[in-house]
Design goal:
alpha+beta, 25 strands, 18% helix, globular
Length: 421
């Protein structure tokens, strides 16, 4: 993703106005096509178009008036491109929020100005902290229903900022809004002249996206080995894939994991032409000086930035399947392009959903539970800590019997030493 693209997610309790906020953002930034608006007007139950219908696309959502699935939308302004995920607020859809927020640079958490910070607000802040989202916007919505009073906004902003900071959220920006009316969404509100901060869109356009993968250590998961075997390219051997993190330059000494074999990067092909360097998240083909046994799932890294490989994995996971995750369960770990067999060795704790506190020895993890687990893989994995690199610090647990996704994992630093009995 280019540096001028911001990925962000929305979250909030039921009826806090998430979908209306997103609809207002799309509508006021002129990112809605005329036929889309006409369809929404036909589906609305009132004379005024219900902008929430721009994202609540499922029939079940419209019938219940809630958000169930994660609705992705793409739009742009002259200053930046955006990918947004409107995430559900119900506790039973925690796994959906984790999905929508896992790749976000920023999350907008809505609260109702009449209700303030509630349990779901704390849960959403905790998930944002767990997923290392660098920027959180607290959108205090429905200010029109409390007379646009600063005395209603300030205590909520102070309480949430203190709570999020204690969880480790690095930056919180609080904005008083009315998604229904449009106050402080795209245009500044004349009704709240006491507020001199940015509108929601202004902040989205100017905030610095921390998750530029090109600034991390070099990581290149091999997706495909290219061997044309033609008269024109009889000896061509290239390793194709997408750079997950960092920068690769011709002449770099590289290491192939998990084998540990080393070579030198002699060429980089990008869109059919040679280049001297490439960076995440570009898709390229790497050429090496030596004919090494490399296959899909191997990881090419600069030799000076090689991670430690281990068969033992300690991680935080969000369990997404309806069947429990139990000790002894045999699973598949899908890490980048590599999939290996593994076994759940231990489930030391389940995390409190609203404060990330440790609840020891839960015995199992149920759907929407977040917990710590230890795995033993059949083959070594080159996992980074999720806090250092999202792309190579995350993985999926898969049911080997039917391919069902069981859990989404985030590797912790300081995994057990390789070769543990």
């Amino acid at each position: 993703m280019n540096a001028d693209t911001l990925r962000f997610a929305t979250a909030g309790s039921v009826d806090d106005g998430k979908s209306t906020l997103v609809g207002r953002l799309l509508y006021d930034s002129r990112s809605v096509l005329a036929d889309q608006l006409e369809a929404v007007a036909r589906a609305s139950r009132t004379a005024t178009p219900d902008l929430a219908l721009l994202t609540d696309g499922l029939r079940a959502e419209r019938e219940q008036g809630i958000t169930i699935d994660v609705a992705y939308r793409y739009f742009a302004t002259p200053r930046r491109r955006f990918i947004l995920a409107d995430s559900p607020g119900h506790v039973q859809y925690t796994r959906n929020m984790v999905t929508g927020t896992s790749t976000a640079d920023l999350v907008v958490i809505l609260v109702d100005a009449r209700n303030g910070v509630v349990e779901q607000t704390r849960r959403h802040a905790a998930i944002a902290a767990l997923l290392r989202v660098p920027h959180v916007v607290l959108a205090v919505n429905k200010m029109d229903l409390v007379g646009y009073a600063e005395t209603a906004f300030a205590p909520i902003a102070d309480e949430f900022t203190a709570y999020a900071s204690a969880l480790g959220v690095p930056q919180v920006t609080a904005v008083p809004i009315s998604a229904l009316v449009g106050d402080n969404i795209v245009e500044s509100s004349a009704a709240m002249q006491w507020y001199d901060g940015p509108t929601v869109l202004e902040h989205l356009e100017t905030v610095r996206a921390r998750h530029d993968p090109a600034h991390a250590q070099g990581r290149f998961p091999v997706q495909y080995v290219i061997r044309p075997g033609t008269a024109e390219h009889p000896d061509y051997r290239g390793y194709a894939g997408q750079i997950a993190a960092g920068v690769f330059r011709v002449g770099d000494a590289v290491t192939v994991l998990p084998s540990g074999r080393t070579s030198t990067l002699t060429g980089i092909d990008l869109l059919g032409r040679p280049v001297d360097e490439a960076r995440a998240p570009q898709s390229v083909t790497l050429l090496l000086a030596d004919d090494i046994d490399i296959a899909r799932g191997d990881l090419i890294v600069p030799s000076t930035e090689a991670p430690t490989t281990s068969q033992d994995v300690e991680a935080t996971v969000c369990h997404v399947a309806d069947t429990p995750l139990t000790v002894g369960l045999r699973v598949l770990i899908k890490h980048t392009t590599r999939t290996v067999r593994a076994r759940v060795e231990e489930i030391p704790s389940r995390l409190g959903p609203d404060d990330l506190s440790q609840r020891p020895e839960p015995g199992q993890l149920l759907a929407n539970d977040i917990g710590r687990i230890r795995l033993r893989a059949a083959e070594p994995l080159a996992l980074d800590a999720y806090a250092d690199c999202r792309g190579t610090g995350s993985f999926l647990l898969i049911d080997p019997a039917d391919g069902t996704t069981l859990a989404a994992g985030m590797a912790l630093a300081g995994s057990p030493d390789p070769g543990r009995p």
